[in-house]
Amino acid sequence: MRKQDFQFQLPDSLIANQPSENRTDSRLMVIDPKTQTVGDHHFFNLVDFLQPNDCLIFNNTKVIPARLQGSRETGGKVEVLIERIIPRRYESVKKDAHIPGQDDLSNKDVCIAQLRASNAPKPGAEIILADDFRLVVVGREGAFFKLESQTDEPLLELVERYGSTPLPPYIRRETEALDKQRYQTVYAEKQGAVAAPTAGLHFDEALLKKINDKGVETDFVTLHVGAGTFSPIRVDNILEHQMHSEWFEVPESVVELVSRTRRNGGRVIAVGTTSVRCLESASQKGQLESCCGETDIFIYPGYQFKSVDALVTNFHLSESTLLMLVSAFAGREFILDAYNKAVERAYRFFSYGDAMFIQNTEDSEKETK
C-alpha cells in the first residue's frame, strides 16, 4: 500500500481553528460500513446510537503546557516543544514498564523535545526559560533533543508554571486563554500528553451522565499522546514506516469491563484512535490483558481488530497513520468516500473539528435506527 492511497483534498477553510461554542455542538457523521450509509447528526445525538450493555473506553491522559519560549546564553530565541518528560521517580508506573532513558539518568529530570531555533543547539548548550528554569542539551536523536533540567524542582512543575498549550501545527494562531480549558477533555486526569485525544473533546458532563443513565458503562485507559502524532509518513510504501512510540496503560478494570460487555452482548466502543491503540496493543496475545509500557502499534488496512467494535473519532489528516487506522476499521474506499462527503457538507476537520461514529462492519446491524 502507498501513502497516496489515503489522500483526500481538503480546503483550508474547513480546518477548525476554534472550538465550537459548546463541546457537544459539534456535528457527528454516523457511518455504517455494512450498509454503506452516511448520516448527519450533532454530537449530542451520540447517546441515541448507543445501547444498554455497550461500553465506552476513554483516554484519560492530560495535556501538559508543553510549549516553552526561551533563549540561548547568546540571546538567540529558542522554542521548546516537549515530547515527554522522564522524571527521576516512577511511583505511578508499574515496575515492568519500559521508560526510555530511565537507565542513564542523572539525578535531574530529563525531557525529550523538539527545538525551533535559527541553528540547532549542540550538546552542552544551555536554554534559558526563566531565572529558575534552565535546560541543557545532553543529546540528540533525529528530530528530537534530550534536555536535562538544571534545578531540583520537578520539571513538570516548571513546565506547568511557564509553558503554554501546545496547539497542533495546523491551527495557525496564537494560543488563547480558552485553549487551556477546551484543548483538554473534561475527564483528563493523568498528566503526560503533548496533544489532546481529540475525540474526547466533544464530551461534557451532561452528555456523560446521559450515557451512563442509558445503561452504558465507561472506563479509562491512558495513552500519553506525543508530538509524533503529527509527523508525516515520509516513505511511499507505508509498510516501511516506523511509528513513534507512546506510553500507555490498560488497567484491570478495563479488561473486566470489556469481558462483561461481551458476555452481555454489548459493544466495546473506543473513544478516539488513542483508545483503539491502547486496547489493541494490550490484545496482541489474542485477548485483552492488563498492561502498561510503550506501544508503537501501526494499524492499517488488513489489520484484524481484537478488542474494539465501534469507534468515535475526529477527521484526520490526509495520508496520516490515523486515517489508515480508521480505514482499517471501516474500509479504505468507504472512509475516503465519507471524508469527501464531509468536505462537500462543510464538516470541520481536525482537533477542534467535528466527529464520526464508525461501526465495525460485523457489528453495524446493532446500530439504533
UniProtKB/TrEMBL annotation:
Root EC class: transferase
Pfam families xref list: Queuosine_synth (PF02547)
UniProt subcellular location: Cytoplasm
Record keywords, A-Z: Cytoplasm, Glycosyltransferase, Isomerase, Queuosine biosynthesis, S-adenosyl-L-methionine, Transferase
Example GO BP: tRNA queuosine(34) biosynthetic process
KW Nucleus (keyword) present: no
Keyword Acetylation attached: no
SUPFAM superfamilies: QueA-like (SSF111337)
GO cellular component, one term: cytoplasm
Pathway recorded for this protein: tRNA modification; tRNA-queuosine biosynthesis
Record's function text: Transfers and isomerizes the ribose moiety from AdoMet to the 7-aminomethyl group of 7-deazaguanine (preQ1-tRNA) to give epoxyqueuosine (oQ-tRNA).
Oligomer status and interactors: Monomer.
Family named by the database record: Belongs to the QueA family.
Protein name: S-adenosylmethionine:tRNA ribosyltransferase-isomerase
Organism encoding this protein: Aliikangiella coralliicola
